[in-house]
């Protein structure tokens, strides 16, 4: 919730704060242990984005327990911040500027179709001058993707499914008429469409689950031509995303190379082939790239142990170097900038520092605080996080993050292992509220990037195909055994906790391995995999692997999903479990937790089961997050005391 004190903190954005960057970044270690209220207080402000002209700032916050967008005037500093109310029953998915006076906002919700919950995604435009909302387009199942934004703010291109039974179309929404026009009709198997920097849809990627191919055209006066199909699993073959440079048939593509890692290549769209390798990280995948408005390569992004950007633009590369010098030891990201690059929004954080947003005005050479989202934790005792790895039973190297409780001897400690959501996602070296909370209570926390986690080459992801409850779970269990073998953890004092897929992993651990885990904690967990796939088949798969999603989750139909679904195996779940879910969750329907809770209750083993009214896939009310953390602490104290 954005209280008056935090509004005041944000409002200093134009006030010079001499020495503030380093003072906040290097807050001295303290002995005060944060309370559940400290950890449960939601961030005052998240993900600020500056307008193209550098005059306004928009950021995400909470007002009276509901998600809001907060607007700030960066020039006069006279106008009080005001919030944009969002429709009830919708989650805020994304937002961005369209020109200097409009915001494009994406919301998600769920509804029932023939008795089956289905996810919907809706884009709306908020006009700052009139404070009116205009609907853009609604997507069914697949949702909506923003494909292109006109630099002048006259129109946007949006990819959306008109119904759950069709492939996505591309719509042009004109702000002069507030009308959407379908400009590219659905094509069989095409899920992704791409525009060039002038706003013409030039190419699309299609897949039938086994093969993929490309549609391409030089301009919008001709039809698309279809490339030769390739087998998805072929090396040197899979393309994730691409862009065409203006007035040419050349461009760039993020694709797998001989190493199996995604790198950035030049691409010849007429010849339909990859060209020169522009950049490949020696250890991890490239996740994305950006072009300037003129079509020049600006940067690539990747995550090794933490999120990073490699700048090809020498000006921005120099700016980043200056920021790193000003904020030593911190992870620095330029997350937004004005069109003329004179004003930058900078995020500075570390695994043991909850972070600060700065506004860097390059014209006057000053950096000013926008907000410290977790200001209540500044000066409190927090734990260090270490990047580690261990060897799974089949020899696979598993990257992970280890957080130790402050002030305790590193021997025979209690453990809470915490698998991430997704599962085709990953954890990284960063500030994690749950990890810090558990460590402050005396627990070792291990966050494994088990097989199937993204970013570590295509082969690492593919080792997770069909491995729900099997190979993925083995990797989690092997992390426990590794810490026990090191003498760091007491084998008899281990619990597991997670959200979303992590919640599934916690539930399944309680079914499959009561010999390893004393207890389990699941927030918004999946208990019936088949039912969740019917609800939203994109839920579990990173975008670059979506085109053969079923193979990723089910392993080519070779896995009996009921056999690895906790709700179907409730009879075998006999260790204490805490289950929690928001009743407004549009990512994982709350019925997923209810099914397991009901099944256990019928068996005479009712779990600790909590439903948070009005909450989605996570907490939007501080009182609910505080309540959940206190329940977790009490549950662990009872079943695995530190």
Automatic annotation (TrEMBL):
Residue ranges of domain Peptidase S9 prolyl oligopeptidase catalytic in the record: 429-639
* One family name in Pfam for this protein: Peptidase_S9
* The keyword Ribosomal protein is annotated on this UniProt entry: no
What is a GO molecular function of this protein? serine-type endopeptidase activity
The signal peptide annotation in the UniProt record is 1-25
What UniProt keywords apply to this chain's record, in alphabetical order? Answer: Hydrolase, Signal
| One of the protein's GO biological processes | proteolysis
Q: Which SUPFAM superfamilies match?
A: alpha/beta-Hydrolases, DPP6 N-terminal domain-like
Output this protein's name.
S9 family peptidase
Classification lineage:
Bacteria, Pseudomonadati, Pseudomonadota, Alphaproteobacteria, Sphingomonadales
């Amino acid at each position: 919730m954005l209280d008056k004190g935090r509004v005041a903190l944000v409002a200093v954005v134009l006030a010079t704060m001499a020495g503030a960057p380093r003072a906040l970044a290097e807050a001295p270690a303290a002995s005060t242990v944060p309370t559940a209220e400290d950890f449960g207080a939601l961030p005052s402000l998240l993900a600020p984005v500056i307008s193209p002209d550098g005059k306004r700032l928009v950021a995400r916050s909470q007002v009276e327990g509901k998600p809001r967008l907060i607007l700030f005037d960066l020039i006069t500093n006279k106008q009080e911040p005001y919030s944009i109310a969002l429709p009830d029953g919708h989650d805020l998915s994304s937002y961005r500027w369209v020109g200097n006076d409009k915001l494009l906002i994406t919301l998600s919700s769920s509804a029932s179709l023939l008795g089956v919950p289905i996810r919907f995604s809706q884009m709306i435009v908020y006009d700052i001058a009139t404070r009116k909302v205009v609907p853009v387009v609604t997507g069914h199942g697949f949702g909506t993707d923003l494909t292109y934004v006109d630099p002048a703010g006259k129109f946007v291109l949006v990819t959306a499914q008109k119904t759950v039974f069709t492939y996505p179309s591309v719509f042009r929404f004109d702000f002069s008429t507030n009308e959407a026009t379908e400009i590219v009709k659905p094509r069989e198997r095409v899920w992704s469409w791409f525009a060039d920097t002038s706003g013409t849809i030039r190419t699309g990627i299609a897949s039938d689950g086994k093969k993929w191919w490309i549609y391409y055209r030089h301009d919008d006066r001709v039809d698309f031509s279809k490339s030769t199909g390739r087998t998805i699993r072929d090396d040197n073959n899979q393309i994730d995303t691409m862009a065409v440079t203006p007035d040419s048939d050349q461009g760039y593509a993020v694709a797998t190379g001989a190493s199996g890692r995604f790198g950035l290549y030049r691409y010849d769209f007429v010849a339909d082939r990859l060209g020169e390798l522009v950049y490949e990280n020696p250890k991890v995948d490239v996740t994305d790239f950006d072009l300037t408005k003129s079509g020049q390569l600006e940067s690539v992004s990747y995550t090794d142990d933490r999120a990073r950007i490699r700048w090809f633009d020498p000006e921005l590369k120099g700016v980043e170097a200056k920021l790193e010098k000003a904020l030593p030891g911190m992870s620095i990201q330029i997350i937004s900038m004005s069109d003329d690059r004179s004003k930058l929004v900078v995020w500075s954080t570390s695994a043991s520092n909850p972070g600060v947003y700065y506004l860097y005005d390059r014209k006057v050479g000053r950096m000013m605080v926008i907000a410290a989202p977790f200001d209540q934790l500044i000066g409190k005792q927090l734990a260090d996080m270490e990047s580690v790895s261990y060897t799974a039973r089949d020899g696979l190297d598993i990257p992970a993050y280890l957080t130790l409780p402050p002030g305790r001897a590193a021997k025979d400690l209690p453990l809470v292992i915490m698998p991430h959501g997704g599962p085709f996602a990953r954890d990284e070296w960063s500030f994690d509220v749950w990890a810090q909370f558990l460590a402050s209570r005396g627990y070792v926390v291990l966050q494994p990037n088990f097989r199937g986690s993204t970013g570590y080459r295509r082969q690492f992801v593919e080792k997770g195909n069909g491995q729900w409850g099997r190979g993925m779970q083995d990797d989690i269990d092997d992390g426990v055994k590794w810490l026990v073998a090191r003498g760091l953890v007491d084998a008899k004092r281990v619990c597991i906790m997670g959200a979303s897929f992590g919640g599934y992993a916690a539930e399944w651990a309680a079914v499959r391995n009561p010999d390893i885990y004393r207890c389990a904690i699941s927030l918004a967990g999946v208990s019936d995999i088949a039912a969740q796939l019917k609800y939203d088949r994109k839920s579990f798969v990173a975008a670059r692997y979506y085109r053969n999603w079923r193979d990723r989750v089910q392993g080519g139909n070779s896995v009996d999903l009921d056999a690895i679904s906790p709700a179907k195996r409730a009879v075998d779940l006999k260790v204490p479990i805490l289950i929690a879910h928001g009743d407004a969750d549009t990512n994982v329907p709350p019925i997923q937790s209810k099914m397991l809770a009901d099944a256990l209750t019928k068996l005479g083993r009712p779990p600790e089961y909590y439903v948070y009214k009005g909450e989605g896939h996570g907490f939007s009310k501080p009182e609910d997050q505080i309540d959940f953390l206190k329940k977790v602490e009490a549950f662990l104290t009872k079943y695995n005391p530190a």
